[in-house]
Structure prediction request, 440 residues.
Amino acid sequence: MHAAAATPPLTLPGPARRAAHLFPLLAVIVLLATPPLGGDGSATAADAACGVLVVWALLRVLRSGERPLSRRAAIVMGLPVTGICVAAMGAADPATAIAGLGRYLQIFVLVPLAVLLVLRDRDDFRLAAAAVVALALFEGGLGVQQYLTSTGASYMGEDIRAVGTFGASDIMGMATVVSCGLLCSIGLALDPTPGASRTPRRAALGCAALLLVPLAVSFSRGAWIATAVAACTMLLLSGVRRALVVLVALAAAGVVFIGASGSGSQLLQERLASITQVESAPDQSVTDRYTMWAAAELMWRQSPLTGVGLKGFPDHRDAHSSIALSSGSDTAGAGAAFKRQPLLSPHNMYFLVLSEQGLIGVVTLVGAWAALLVAGVRRLRLARRHGAPLDCALVATGLLTWLLVDFFYGDIGGPSTALTALVLGLAAWWGLAARGGARP
Prediction:
């Protein structure tokens, strides 16, 4: 009798096997499209995946037995811990302080550090960037459908605001994802390195063109400004002559799009014009924002060194605000009933850190972001000098620039917050990773 043939072991395809160590990171990106697990303001599946990613990175470090970080990387990535912990100790409510401590450590320390440790080379970085583009295309396509069918969030009396799967409670969610996907596409398409493959660059350029539409119908002024600044920065870093050509082409395309958008063109023009009217004729949302910024400044003056403590802004808001502040913002549409959402933050990350963490938080947290930006630009210059590919450098620099500009108009909160941690992780990998794949 012949022995039965042994069943061959189940193996993954070559590309999937090489990228298997990235599955937890890719899971975070995919699960960003899922709604909160327990309703508005609760944890999301992406948050749970972030925990898995952190554990995965820790196990990889323990298994390798190698020193995972350089001294500079350890200082930059660990610097925010000081300000966060000091602010948590100064909070009035211990339960709220513990929750805020966990959230801040997740977004600004643990997940970015896990991304830094999981990525091995430029191919890993490109795969993560491509996953962000894919997520942006999905969310953007859904957002455009919401705009065309009037099933989006309420805006100017019509349910036309594109919000994707994030709903009316997180109107910045889709705009954030689409902006990041757009910048990833631009970075992958702009690589000026001689000999770079044209097919992926053309595909990335096509994705960037498609993502302009959902970004426009998100009606998010902060996302528009941050994306424009980041895209111009990436263009200038890739070459001044190319930047001029692309900017002229984009201006022409913008005129055509607004002219062809029919009834929506007037709304877009009014929204664009409102950017320059924040001083002369601000709407109520801008008035609320300015009022909360002033309240945050007063909180900082009250406790300049340590602030009022993590998650302390809502408790101190009314005592430091003028009567110009409204009771909340109205949300409706995208499958949700009308709801009055309280204003729990100043919608400015820098003022939020200043009010809750004081000068210690600004120096440690904002200082770490500035260090990431400087390190990334320095490595980009080294990569250009050595003739290395610049697509990863452009993506990392563009995403970090977008985040730092967007923080002038928003802060952390909502289901899309996990993407903030991924952006910081990608920037940290490019600027601080000590592996050979990270060096220009």
About this structure: The chain is about 65% helix and 5% strand.
